[in-house]
Amino acid sequence: MSNGHFENPPEQFPRGAPPQEREGSEESFESASNIEFSVGTIASEEHPERNEDAVLSMPDEKVFGVFDGMGGREGGQEASKIAEETVRKILEQREIKGSSPKEIEEMLREALHQAHLEIRKSQERNQELSEMGTTASIVKFWEDEKGQRRITIANVGDSRVYRYSLPESLEKITLDHDVASASIKDKETLREIQAALDNIKNPNEITAIAGVPASEIEKFWKLRNQVTGMLGGSAKPRIYSLVIEQGERIIITSDGIHGNLTHQEMVEVLHKANTKEEMVAGLIQRAREISRMNTRENPRAKKDDMSVVVCETSPTLPEKKVSFPEKLRAPESGEEIVAAISRAESLGDLLDVIGGIEDLQGTNKFYNGEELIRVILDIGGRVRDGLGEEGFKKELRRIPRTSGLRDKVEELLKSQLQ
Predict the structure, then answer these.
(1) Number of domains in the chain
(2) 3 state DSSP class of 255
(3) 363 and 236, same structural domain?
(4) For residues 232 and 133, is the Cβ–Cβ distance under 8 A?
(5) Sign of the CA dihedral 90, 85, 97, 102?
(6) How far apart are alpha carbons 379 and 384 in whole angstroms?
C-alpha cells in the first residue's frame, strides 16, 4: 500500500457566484453562530455486534465528520476508530478557533494525515489488519471577515457531504474517490457521471453520459462500491470551501445511506422531515428498508453500516432569558399565554412573551421559551433571505399551534415583508 499523498488544492464551491480568492487573507475569524446538529449511526444487520462506521462530533470546535472503515472482520472497525480518535486528538490539541482559512485547511489536512499514519502503524504491528483503511469526511464551520458563514471540508473515499435547503434542493458537494474518479479527470464530467450513477435503479437503462460510452458507465456502476482512496491506503484528500446560507443544512453520510438510496429518494425523505432528528431517522430507516431487499427487487440494495450527521447554523441567543417588569410579568396560565400572544404587535413583543414561558405543550413535546425563540429567529432569517411561500409554510410547522403561536408568527413575519 502507498503511504498516500496530501497535495490536492482546495476546491472552491460557491453557489451562483465565482469563487472567492483567499490568497493574502490571513486574518483570524471567530464564528458567532451556534451549530445545531443531530447524529445517527447503526451497525449493519450482517454484523450487528460491531459498527465499522465512526462519527466525529466536536460542537465546541464546530467540527463534525463520518468515517467508514473497511478491511476484514476487525479491520474496518479498528481503522475508523483510529481515525476518529486521532482527528479528535489533533484538533483538540491545536487551537482551531479563530484560525485563518489557510490554517483551517492545514489543520484538517494534518489531522487526516496523522490519522493515516496511525492506521499505517497499526497495519505494521498486526498483519491481520494490513488491508484495513477508512474513508473520511470532515466539516469545519466558521465565519469570514464579512460575517459570512462558511465551511471547509476535507474528504477522502466515498463518505459524502451534502448541502440541503428548502424546498427540495439537495446538492452533493464532495466527489467520491471511486473507479469513475480514477478514470475521469475532468471534474465537471465526473460530477455529471456520479450524479447519474446516484439515480440509477435499473442498470438496463444505462446510456452514454457526457461523451463517455454506455459500456464505460456500466463498468462504473458495477464497481461503484469500490473505493480508490482511503486513509491507510492510497490517500489523496480533496479540500472544499464554500459559503452557506442561514437555514441551509449540511449533511454527512456514509455509503450505507447514499449507496442504498437514490439521490431523489434522499430528497423525498428530507422533504418530509420537519427537524434534523427526523432527517437523520428518516434517512436511516429508508436506507435500512432498501438494504433488506434482494438485488432483483432493488439493484442498489446492500447490507451496510449507516451513519448520518445533520448540522445547521443558528443565531446566537442572549445567555439570559428575557426579564419582565411587574406590569408585564411572564404569563403563567394557559389563558394568560393566549392573551399575551394575541396582543403582541411586533416580533419583539412576541419574543418578550415567549422568553418568559417555561413550557408550551405541542403535539408531541413540550417547548421551552429559549427553544421557541431560536426557531422563530431562524425562520425569520430564512424569510428575509427569500424563502418562498411553500418553504415558509413548511418551516412554520416547526412551531406549535398551541395558544395561537404559529398563526401569530406567520402574521408578524409576513407583516415585516410588506
Answers:
(1) 2
(2) helix
(3) no
(4) yes
(5) positive
(6) 9
Cα 216 from Cα 383, distance rounded (Å): 45
In 167-250, where does DSSP find H-type helix?
179-183, 187-197, 214-222
State pTM to two decimals: 0.72
Same domain, 299 and 346: no
Judgement on whether residues 112 and 63 belong to the same structural domain of the protein: yes
Same domain, residue pair 301 and 339: no
Find out whether 163 and 248 touch, Cβ atoms under 8 Å.
yes
Does residue 99 sit in the same domain as residue 239?
yes
From 407, 415, 108, select the one nearest 239 (Cα to Cα): 108
372 and 246, same structural domain?
A: no
Query: Rounded to whole angstroms, what are the CA distances from 415 to 230, 378, 379?
Result: 52, 17, 14
**Which residue, 132, 141, 113, 153, is CA-closest to 6?**
113
Q: Phi first, then psi: what are they for 49, rounded to 5°?
A: -80, -10
How many residues would you count in the chain? 418
Residue 128 lies in a domain: yes
**Residue carrying C-alpha cell 458495477:** 222
Could you tell me the three cell numbers for 59? 460542537
Alpha helix locations (H) across 134-232? 179-183, 187-197, 214-222
Per residue of the chain (418 residues), what is the pLDDT tens digit? 334 444 444 554 444 333 333 323 333 344 435 788 999 999 999 999 999 999 999 998 999 999 999 987 678 999 999 999 999 999 998 876 666 888 999 999 999 999 999 999 999 999 889 899 999 999 999 988 888 889 999 999 999 999 998 766 899 999 999 999 999 999 999 999 999 999 999 999 999 998 999 999 999 999 999 999 999 998 789 999 999 987 789 999 999 999 999 999 999 999 988 889 999 999 999 999 999 999 999 999 999 999 999 998 865 443 333 333 333 334 445 566 777 788 888 777 787 777 766 666 655 566 677 777 778 877 877 776 677 788 888 888 888 887 788 888 888 888 765 5
Whether cis (ω within 30° of 0) applies to the bond prior to 19 is no
Of residues 234, 128, 99, the one with CA closest to residue 178: 234
